[in-house]
Amino acid sequence: MDDRQRYDRATAGLEAPFAILDLAAMRANAADLVRRAASKPIRVASKSIRSRPLLERVLAMDGFQGIMAFTLPEALWLAGHGFTDILVAYPTADRHALATLAADPDTARRITVTIDSAAHLDFIDAAVAHVHQRAEIRTCLDIDAAYLALGGRFRAGALRSPVREPDQAADLAAGIAKRPGFRLAGVMAYESQIAGLGDDPPGNAAYTRLIRLMQARSARELILRRGRVVNAVRQYTDLEFVNGGGTGSVERTVREKAITEVAAGSGLFHPRLFDFYRRFTGRPAALFALPVVRRPDMETVTVLGGGYPASGSAGPSRLPQPYLPAGLRYAPDEGAGEVQTPLIGQAAAELRIGDRVWFRHAKAGEMCERFDALHLVDGDTLVETVPTYRGEGQTFL
Q1: What pLDDT, on the 0 to 100 scale, is given for residue 314?
Q2: Dihedral sign for Cα atoms in the order 25, 26, 31, 32
Q3: What predicted TM-score, i.e. pTM, was given to this entire model?
Q4: Which of 250, 273, 330, 345 is closest to 45 using CA atoms?
Q5: pLDDT for the residue 397
Q6: Which residues pair with 373 in a beta bridge?
Q7: Which residues of 166-194 are buried (b: 16+ CB within 10 A; e: fewer)?
Q8: d(CA 374, CA 367)
Q9: Could you tell me if 366 and 41 are in contact, meaning their C-beta atoms sit under 8 angstroms apart?
Q10: What is residue 113's predicted lDDT score, i.e. its pLDDT?
């Protein structure tokens, strides 16, 4: 029985659209991430999962420890449901959430917020000034991990922290050490130009060679600079963790002595954008089904909805992939639509009104913003249905 038959059988009682998670595929992906991490713990990126019950499942697996959250309200919500060791990986400007954090010592011990400037510390101080007996705020210093060349005229990597060099990090660490109400608990540096950029893209061979060259040089530069940054910061505090990497760079990042843990999340679902890496091969685990509602001609079917683009630079790579049955593609003049999506190709000939077309999202957790639940499939059996963040009434963005 092929995957399409398994999924159709397991979900025969459901009305599309809906989303599923193939548990066997997720378990295989998790095991491979743990193998690649080589005994260093993996902090689960909740942005890529967006389901509280699934986070619990993943953290129950060997090799996974802690959560990398994407907003402070999310972290507070997770802490209220018993999760601990939560790193909010992006700075926050939410005054109410900061005041809530500072007012609860137990919650404050569970959550670490990210900063990259003294301005963040000033903002937090102002936001919690009215809190009586405020708790100590745990902080993590975010370091720019991008690759620069040609005197800074070339940059590869996300525009994140202004802190790049060891002396900059040391100055900020020294300021935190002297400032009442704060503790510097960790350092993080996310090398998006390696972890989030596939080194085996289809098509342009010259572009592929440039990506691989850039990534090799970036990795060499970062292993030295990140180590120096961490050593400089350790002069002012006993760091509890140094976080780096992502699904696409796990085996590279864990080789650095300075790194104590890696982050990963997308690799558990293995969305479309993670097909283009040489170092690992995952199994598609998260999919959504859309029903066929029209047949304009023998080689075209139209499905309900489907306009679920991923964040990032706009383009075809950000669209969901028509996955099963194989051989379907978007109509070039229409693409993925909000209300309906025409699909063309020989595979359309076998589809009838009411049949399902199975899609993969370009990214992992963003699919969960479209659905209230994930239906968990094991083999050809639907074993459980769990809510997404959206299904629990939480958006956080």
Answers
A1: 84
A2: positive
A3: 0.95
A4: 250
A5: 67
A6: 387
A7: bebbbebbbebeebeebbbbbbbbbbbbb
A8: 10
A9: no
A10: 98
Residue closest to 264 by CA, chosen among 276, 254, 272, 278: 254
Q: Are 271 and 360 in contact (CB under 8 A)?
A: yes
Looking only at the bridges linking them, the beta strands covering 373-378 and 329-330 are: unpaired
- Tokens at residue 388, please? 């997404």
Cα gap 294→352, rounded to integer Å: 8
Q: Which residues of the chain have pLDDT under 70?
A: 397
> SS3 string of the chain?
CCHHHHHHHHCCCCCCCEEEEEHHHHHHHHHHHHHHHCCCCEEEEHHHCCCHHHHHHHHCCCCEEEEEECCHHHHHHHHHCCCCCEEECCCCCCHHHHHHHHCCHHHHHHEEEEECCHHHHHHHHHHCCCCCCCCCEEEEEECCCCEEEHHHCEEECCCCCCCCCHHHHHHHHHHHHHCCCEEEEEEEECCHHHHCCCCCCCCCHHHHHHHHHHHHHHHHHHHHHHHHHHHHHCCCCCCCEEEECCHHHHHHHCCCCCCCEEEECHHHHCCHHHHCCCCCCCCCCEEEEEEEEEEEECCEEEEECCCCCCCCCCCHHHCCEEEECCCCEECCCCCCCCCEEEEECHHHHHCCCCCEEEEECCCCHHHHHCCCEEEEEECCEEEEEEECCHHHCCCCC
From 302, 358, 310, select the one nearest 19 (Cα to Cα).
358
